[in-house]
Sequence to fold (126 residues):
Amino acid sequence: MVSQKLGATPRRLVQACASGSPHDALAQWVVTLAHRLDDLHQQLVTQALHSADTLTRVATGKGQINSLGILQNSGMQIDILAARRADAIEHLTLAIHLYQQLDEPQTRHTAASPAAKLKAHPTRGR
Fold:
C-alpha cells in the first residue's frame, strides 16, 4: 500500500527524510502502521486457513464435531481480526494522506522534498 501510494517502500520512505524532521516522524508512523497492518493480515490469514482446514475435515467426515461447536471461538477471532485489519488500513491510509499533504507545501518552497527525492530515484521492483 505504501509503495503504491508514495512510490517507495516504507524503508526507503524513512531514508528519504531528514532525521528529526516532521517528514521523518510521519514516515516512521507510516512504517509502524504498515508493519501493524502486515501483522494483522498474517494473523487473519493464519486463522482463516486453520478454520477452513477444520471445516474441510468436518465436511469430508474426517473431523470430530465437539459439543461446543465446530469453530468454537475461531469465528469470533476471524471477525475481530478482520475488523482490526480494516481499522489498520484506514489508519495507514490516513497517515499516507497526511504524509502527502505535509509534502505539498514544502514542494512549493523546496526543490528537494522527500517525495521529490523518491520520485527522482524510484526504487526498483516495487
Remarks:
- Residues 106-111 have pLDDT under 50 and may be disordered.
- Residues 2-120 form one domain.
- The two ends are 10 Å apart (CA to CA).
- The chain has one domain: 2-120.
